[in-house]
Amino acid sequence: MSLSFCGNNISSYNIYDGVLQNPCFVDALNLVPHVFLLFITFPILFIGWGSQSSKVQIHHNTWLHFPGHNLRWILTFALLFVHVCEIAEGIVSDSRRESRHLHLFMPAVMGFVATTTSIVYYHNIETSNFPKLLLALFLYWVMAFITKTIKLVKYWQSGWGVSDLRFCITGIMVILNGLLMAVEINVIRVRRYVFFMNPQKVKPPEDLQDLGVRFLQPFVNLLSKATYWWMNTLIISAHKKPIDLKAIGKLPIAMRAVTNYVLADYPNRTPSIWLAMYRAFGRPILLSSTFRYLADLLGFAGPLCISGIVQLLYHYWGEADIFTTSETLSSKEFLENSYVLAVLLFLALILQRTFLQASYYVTIETGINLRGALLAMIYNKILRLSTSNLSMGEMTLGQINNLVAIETNQLMWFLFLCPNLWAMPVQIIMGVILLYNLLGSSALVGAAVIVLLAPIQYFIATKLAEAQKSTLDYSTERLKKTNEILKGIKLLKLYAWEHIFCKSVEETRMKELSSLKTFALYTSLSSKLLLLEGPPKKYMVYSVTNGYFSWGSGLATLSNIDIRIPTGQLTMVVGQVGCGKSSLLLAILGEMQTLEGKVHWSNSKSQPRFFSLSRLYSVAYAAQKPWLLNATVEENITFGSPFNKQRYKAVTDACSLQPDIDLLPFGDQTEIGERGINLSGGQRQRICVARALYQNTNIVLLDDPFSALDIHLSDHLMQEGILKFLQDDKRTLVLVTHKLQYLTHADWIIAMKDGTVLREGTLKDIQTKDVELYEHWKTLMNRQDQELEKVIRKTLRRAMYSREAKAQLEDEDEEEEEEEDEDDNMSTVMRLRTKMPWRTCWRYLTSGGFFLLFLMIFSKLLKHSVIVAIDYWLATWTSEYSINNTGKADQTYYVAGFSILCGAGIFLCLVTSLTVEWMGLTAAKNLHHNLLNKIILGPIRFFDTTPLGLILNRFSADTNIIDQHIPPTLESLTRSTLLCLSAIGMISYATPVFLVALVPLGVAFYFIQKYFRVASKDLQELDDTTQLPLLCHFSETAEGLTTIRAFRHETRFKQRMLELTDTNNIAYLFLSAANRWLEVRTVRSSHDFEMEAQQKGGLVQRGSQGKGALSVLFFFCVCEEDWPRANICCQSSSLFSLEEDCH
């Protein structure tokens, strides 16, 4: 058949009535805009940017979205879809004519090419920020709008209406071209790049100007957002080089913890977490819900399209689709084509998964923002905690760790599941409507069952909430007891009490597992956020009148306190053990609650001014119990102050630290840890004193700095550090001590007894007014002087110091070599994480018991066999009914068989769910028991060298993953795997020819997962390694709360917490984006496979309609599933925490 633009009929070229009356000429006129755009844009695209691409690399700091960016992309995608429909309509209409009429579909093909070129052209203009080149697009949309309007008018004049598909397509294209033209006009109005004298200059967003920001999801175009195309570079590069923190960069400003904390920290009369969430994150939650609604509505397109395809298989089996002999195509005829339905099903599923992934991303991003805001709020409340809350056990490190590692994550996942609350009613209503149209009144029975089960579901939900609450309470109690054991581990080992205290922890663990069993039971049949509160912080003052102070119990610990501390002098606080000396310092620091009295700073004796000390003076404080940062010796001494070499040398000499620093493997750059790794008690104490001396503050408070020092070091510290270094600086010093021989150096003395001030004044005043007390002190001072003389006689032994130091240095070198070997082993372990931890997986499965493992596998296989049997039974029933039109006896037979299979399937579903949960809880019990015993029975050096937060993380976050995350992931993995295998089996039985398509699908999945798994493991590793410093920082802050507040370094520690939070959030955000990247690609590959199956459905022989429908159904079910690949990756990520616990 010959080809021609207007056909072989001479009448097609008739223009006697006017050129616009000729349909062929009108179609040719519609080619003009497309040819114009291609002629203008191709030289710019391939010559301009093509030549620059090899010389100049366009960075993302030049990206700038023009006004109407997202609307333009949506309209362009819609226009491309309409062009596809126009091409299909033109081809079908052309097939009904005697000769080929290219004008029916060639303009549509050119329009598709031009529209695609327009969006590529726009993207290049946008990323390069050349708005003047948009004028070509503006002219194109104007010309396309005019030509399509002419065509629509001519169709209307010819008597065509909405029943004609070509008329509808043309009308839609007029609207779309008009909207795109309006978008271009809006860009001209806002940017003023043409027709205006002063064009507006706009800079890219601040995030894009910072090349350190690598998370580009909020800034890329709509297509890249939907496909996560911008992640390709990171995913591919991970195969060549491991992903590190530098590769993922920084968080965008809008996602940082401080930004979201400011949004969520809204002052309310009645604090409410829900109101704060609504105010801060209401818009993204609404956007996520909208995406979820669209995805749910598109989800019903699948069953409708499949229903139409199956009906076409029944009516036109083995025959071509039959249309009327009319040259035009109606909308109804177009939708009755099986190929059209297959394409619509494909597009509907693609859009559904796109909207679903968009909903997931928005909720995850919002959840991460919420987590950052909550962590900032919790940290602020920790900084305001009263010391009594921690010292009396009202709030422990275990509780804080549980709050940070578990409960904030649960609130984050609550947002992820939140759209289900209002999406489920829509799904139920739409499902009932569709079933009613298909089944009639029988569908109302199912709706009635749903309504009747609603009270039961509500009852189960309330029980689930109660079980979850009790689980959290028991988990908090367990962590509290574990924290007590870890903090007193040396005493427990000394008395061999490990097993006694382990038994107490295990009893609480059994209660926790009982709650989890209840939770699992109700889950098979179908968060409490702790806010830390403390009394408002009171600032340190200089004089107290009739003061009464308490630790929050209401009973006065210090009573009738009347003291004054002279400025620029040495004040000593002395007294017996437990008389309240340390409490007096903490009261001065504002750590105790003032019950009564006046506490104020007196600027002069005649003019008292009630100012807080923090506004007038800076303070340095050394606690009686040493507190060190998990940092180097130098960082612990400087404590955020600028490094001054001369001052640093003077301080270390005054504290006799230089010999100890020389013994350390890396000198003062040695990491010493939060618990003083490799340091003795005296060394830790002197570092804390050196920190107080190094700070350039007005006031220094030292709480018994000689308690862990021998007499020689105490005397050196007193002479060189206090009397010389501090006194020379004229700093106000308050010293709590038992060394009464130093009282002669005191300018002012405060004597304490039983929580009250016994005497106050100079030593001469006390000698005059209280002779008995002075004589008692004199006796004790003589005794201490005798001890000092003994030490002096032993100074000759200091010659042995160098030999002992050398021996200790050799020991340290040996320990360092052992640590390096451990580091190498740790590095090897981290690299092994790039492989699937099959051994750990097997250890987890066998921890639940071989019987439960066998029962789980057997019940799973039996359940999926019954499910496949149900579908096969329905297919056989349908085939027999359509061929033989069976009577009542056969109908009863099939109904009875179907009922039996359904009952067995329901029972087996319950059994398998309970078996998986039971096995998971048994494994969790055994693994926690082994973990607790290994930790408690470990050597003392392990507790000295391992941060407490790291150990608690094993009992909180990792244990929570084993308890509540691995069992459902394991169930999902086995379900999706068996569904995949059963689907392949049924498809092979019904339509064997489609097994050929498994080869390219398998190859595609192999390469996608090959790159994804490596990147996912690296990102999971980054998520784990960045979470541990955050948890350690929280525990470190809680332990050194008094010191941090005394130095008034809350802002610095808060900034550090925000940095650690953002670092952990960016790692998790990239991990979530990588999961979405995988989902988009595997689901789209599955849908391509499904579309091919839909289009080849005619290969099933006549009489096998049930089998053909069963094949299509299994294709649909498999493509709706996540496939085993995502579950394997998720399970492997969860097993990382299990692997850490096992080792």
UniProtKB/TrEMBL annotation:
Domain ABC transporter per the UniProt entry, residue ranges: 542-779
GO molecular function: ABC-type transporter activity; ATP binding; ATP hydrolysis activity; sulfonylurea receptor activity
GO CC terms in record: plasma membrane; protein-containing complex
Regions of compositional bias (Acidic residues) in chain numbering: 810-825
Keyword set, alphabetical order: ATP-binding, Glycoprotein, Membrane, Nucleotide-binding, Receptor, Repeat, Transmembrane, Transmembrane helix, Transport
Compartment(s) where it occurs, according to its Swiss-Prot or TrEMBL record: Membrane
Region (Disordered): 805-826
InterPro entries: AAA+_ATPase, ABC1_TM_dom, ABC1_TM_sf, ABC_transporter-like_ATP-bd, ABC_transporter-like_CS, ABC_transporter_C-like, ABCC8/9, ABCC9_ATP-bd_dom1
SMART domains linked to this entry: AAA
ABC transmembrane type-1 domain segment(s): 294-526, 854-1082
GO biological process: potassium ion transport
Gene3D superfamilies: ABC transporter type 1, transmembrane domain, P-loop containing nucleotide triphosphate hydrolases
Pfam families hit by this protein: ABC_membrane, ABC_tran
Spans through the membrane: 31-50, 71-92, 104-122, 134-153, 165-188, 293-314, 334-351, 442-461, 841-858, 893-916, 986-1008
Tagged with keyword Transmembrane helix: yes
Keyword hit for Glycoprotein: yes
Family: Belongs to the ABC transporter superfamily. ABCC family. Conjugate transporter (TC 3.A.1.208) subfamily.
Protein name: ATP binding cassette subfamily C member 9
Organism: Equus caballus (Horse)
